[in-house]
Design goal:
Layout lengths: L1 H10 L8 H7 L4 H11 L4 H18 L8 H7 L5 H12 L3 H7 L2
Helix pairs in contact: 2-3
């Protein structure tokens, strides 16, 4: 069951509307069951999982010189991070540097 949720989330990770409700619907289970499944197998909420995966994708793109992104803002917005200050702080907590630092280092 967890595998179907994770596959569904990976296919839609760039979707701004990806939510626990959407994942539950894709996995044909209740929202409560989805939360229980994520807690039991991953120890985190579906929302936290989606945010982590989005951050990982953003980090990979910012680190890759062949990625066609023009700015950190453009990429953050593409992945649904609408509050840029909060995005930068969460990114820094996860990767130990600001997204702008990752972006500058890639060239």
């Amino acid at each position: 069951e967890i595998a179907s949720c994770l596959v569904g989330s990976e296919m839609c990770i760039r979707d701004r509307e990806l939510s626990a409700e959407v994942l539950a619907e894709q996995a044909c289970m209740s929202l409560r069951s989805l939360y229980a499944l994520f807690d039991q197998h991953l120890g985190i909420t579906p929302k936290h999982y989606v945010r982590q995966r989005k951050l990982e994708r953003v980090h990979a793109c910012l680190s890759d010189p062949t990625c066609g992104v023009r700015s950190v803002t453009e990429l953050a917005l593409d992945y649904g991070f609408l509050h840029l200050g909060r995005f930068s702080e969460v990114y820094r907590q996860q990767f130990g540097e600001l997204p702008s630092q990752t972006f500058k280092r890639r060239s």
